[in-house]
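Hey,

Quick one before I head out. I ran the complex with flavin mononucleotide overnight. Inputs first:
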Amino acid sequence: MIPKEILLKIIKAGSLAPSADNGQPWRFKITEQQDVELFRHPGMFEKDLSVLKEVSLIGHGAVIENMRIASAYFSYQMRVDFFPDAGNSNLVARLNFDARQDKDLYLASLYNFITKRCTNRSPYKNAALTELENKKLTGAGDDFKDVMLKIIADKESVRGLAEAVSTNERVVLSNPVLHKYFFNLIRFSQSKTEQTQNGMHVRTLAMPPPAEMIFYLCKYWPIMKFLSFFGLIKTIARQNSKIYQNSAAFGVLLIKEPSPINFINTGQAMQKIWLQATALGLQFQPTAAVPYYAREASEKNNPIFGGNEKELLLSAYKTIKKISADPNLTVSFVFRIGQGLPPRARTTRLELSKLLIA
Ligand SMILES: Cc1cc2nc3c(=O)[nH]c(=O)nc-3n(C[C@H](O)[C@H](O)[C@H](O)COP(=O)(O)O)c2cc1C
């Protein structure tokens, strides 16, 4: 059996995975046989936004990939049994570990980048990816045959994608449900960050200080609505679009259909590509939300998206698909990538004792 201290190191690596708005929607259970059961821990907004379930599964994919990499590093092979209990869809996977002599050296080499990987929302340098970077990133996504990676670097497409993904900011700040969900996970003080150990400190959003002050007021819905009359939301979206345009490339992950297992695989591929990008010294930001909200908006009688939000989302999603893919594929993740300085602030994680369940 795998020693407990190694198992805990592997779980710790899993817990450092990225999740939407750093919600960390997962819990771990160690069984008597020293297997690990990975559970979904649904947040309170899932009842309003059904799409958060698939977004959560992408995070679980990243947890599994970090654990697979940590296992290789400690000379174990991790076997994954997805959704092993038909009666409990919150049990995402059962993982078990066999000692192994011939370790996968490439996988093991990514272990040291698990703590270095992070989201960088600052402007990047206006420099293209090198051929080698392109090749390594594409290679990193190769393990997952049901997930296709497209790297899009031509200027016009990058501009089109930058504009389309910044529709997220327009909708999140103008829609009361998304506004509440988003600000619920923004931390405006260090003490709140330390107390909750989840969410995103405002510094991780990489705004200039005056914008940070206005953003603080935006957490109050009546003020947000008032400021939107003066065009604040459109200004934020326009500024972000400009930042996104200045990236070396966008990456898009595509799946055949939006199934739970395909979202988990997306998360695994995303994480491996992100760690490879980190190893190359590249900066990375998911700009992923528009396809998720567009899927939610296209559900019949969806009560969440009013006014022109549905059209905005569907039109932005159409643009993303047109630039990146065959229209029959589903876009499961979008990110931008490029060279730049490291971010000024990092997110925190729940300590292991809070993540382990009996
Ligand atoms: C599925 C998924 C979707 C995400 N979407 C966005 C996004 O649209 N915009 C953004 O700035 N960050 C996005 N993120 C990044 C998370 O906010 C970030 O990973 C989390 O706050 C933890 O921070 P870290 O990546 O620095 O560890 C996303 C992450 C995941 C896993």
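The longest strand covers residues 91-99.

Talk tomorrow,
K.
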